[in-house]
């Protein structure tokens, strides 16, 4: 029968194994986590009310997003051609629409904080109409909202080579998710933007001129964030910004970033080191556990043989004599098993250190 010391060894080995396995699982989760998928959060369209301007209107759009997984805020700055210094009365009334996940947007003028009201772009009807020019198929009846910014409300200005021109600054919020985070991985996705012209009987909107430009800039990114994948590709990964003609922006597959927060990555590598060391200790503890369980298994086998011996003798078979103490190999000592656990932990931590050095 196993003595008290052997029972304590078995309990200690089981405790070390379970605790080390739990610690390894805890510290390994950030290292092996992947950011969840993030779809394009809807679309924005910009146009001019037909016949509200004496000539085609150029509208440059600047969008600055503060991404979030739950509440994304943004600044939207619309301005005319800074090289022509177009006055507000020649700019026309602007139509701004939000589709898909951006439909719940709240928008206000930055100059006075007044909230803008939204309506469905077209009156409800039995015939559903889709706007494919914003990059996705959205129903004008159900998936989009629209507001009109009158040229009388252009209270901001731009200063260019030709003088002062019109501008309007807006602030908005939406629950459309634009960020997904897991460990050191950060994914960002931003809405598509387009301009469109529709028949007057559907919507009294016409496109801005071909010279119009849109720029999209994500703000408040981690200080040490480095994009590894961008779509479309950004010129400067340290300050990611997209700038392209507004009339071609709808053909982009999406404005997306996928990268690593280097500062957080260092913490993840530290956790991976601790997880590997704990996994090694758990492996050594498992060896210790099996070694410490030897006397208990041997006792069960001896008891089983004693119970079976009478039946074997009745069958006329020879029962081998029980092995003497000299014939039984001594089970590993506690000292050897503890050393095996520590050695396994050292090997695991060394391998983790080598992997982290190779990645960096």
Give a short overview.
The chain is α+β, with helices and mostly antiparallel strands. The protein contains five helices and 18 strands.
**Total strands:** 18
Helical content, roughly?
25-40%
Morphology: elongated
Separation of termini?
54 Å
- Secondary structure tally, helices: 5
Question: What integer value in Å does the Rg equal?
Answer: 35 Å
Order of helices and strands: HEEEEEEEEEEEEEEEEEHEHHH
* Main sheet characteristics: 7 strands, mixed
Specify the structural class.
alpha+beta
- Taken as a percent bin, the fraction of beta residues is 25-35%
Walk me through this protein's architecture.
The protein is 31% helix and 27% strand. The chain is of the alpha+beta class and 360 residues long. Strand 9 and strand 10 form a beta hairpin. The longest helix is centred in the last third of the chain and has 31 residues, at 262-292.
Key structural traits:
360 residues, alpha+beta, 7-stranded mixed β-sheet, 5-stranded mixed β-sheet
């Amino acid at each position: 029968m196993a003595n008290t010391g052997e029972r304590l060894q078995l309990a200690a080995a089981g405790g070390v194994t379970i605790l080390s396995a739990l610690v390894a699982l805890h510290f390994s989760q950030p290292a092996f986590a992947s950011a969840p998928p993030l779809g394009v959060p809807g679309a924005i369209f910009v146009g001019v009310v037909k016949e509200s301007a004496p000539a085609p209107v150029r509208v440059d759009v600047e969008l600055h997003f503060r991404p979030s997984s739950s509440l994304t805020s943004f600044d939207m700055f619309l301005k005319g051609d800074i090289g022509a210094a177009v006055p507000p009365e020649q700019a026309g009334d602007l139509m701004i629409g939000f589709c898909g996940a951006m439909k719940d947007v709240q928008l206000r003028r930055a100059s006075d904080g007044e909230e803008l009201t939204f309506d469905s772009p077209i009156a409800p009807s039995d015939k559903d109409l889709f706007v494919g020019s914003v990059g996705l198929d959205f129903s004008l009846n159900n998936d989009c909202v629209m507001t009109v910014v009158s040229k009388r409300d252009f209270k901001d200005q731009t200063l260019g080579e030709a003088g002062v021109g019109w501008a309007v600054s807006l602030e908005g919020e939406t629950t459309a998710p634009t960020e997904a985070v897991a460990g050191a991985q950060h994914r960002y996705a931003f809405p598509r933007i387009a301009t469109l012209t529709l028949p007057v009987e559907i919507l009294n909107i016409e496109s801005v001129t071909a010279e119009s430009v849109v720029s999209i800039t994500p703000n408040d990114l981690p200080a040490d964030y480095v994009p590894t994948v961008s779509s479309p590709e950004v010129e400067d990964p340290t300050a990611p910004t997209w700038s392209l003609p507004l009339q071609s922006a709808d053909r982009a597959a999406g404005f997306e970033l996928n990268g690593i927060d280097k500062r957080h990555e260092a913490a993840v590598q530290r956790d991976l080191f601790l997880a590997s060391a704990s996994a090694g200790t758990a492996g050594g503890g498992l060896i210790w556990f099996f070694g410490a369980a030897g006397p208990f298994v041997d006792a069960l086998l001896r008891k089983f043989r004693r119970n079976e011996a009478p039946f074997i003798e009745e069958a006329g078979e020879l029962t081998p004599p029980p092995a003497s103490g000299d014939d039984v190999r001594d089970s590993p000592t506690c000292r050897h098993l503890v050393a095996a656990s520590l050695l396994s932990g050292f090997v695991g931590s060394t391998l983790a250190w080598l992997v982290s050095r190779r990645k960096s």
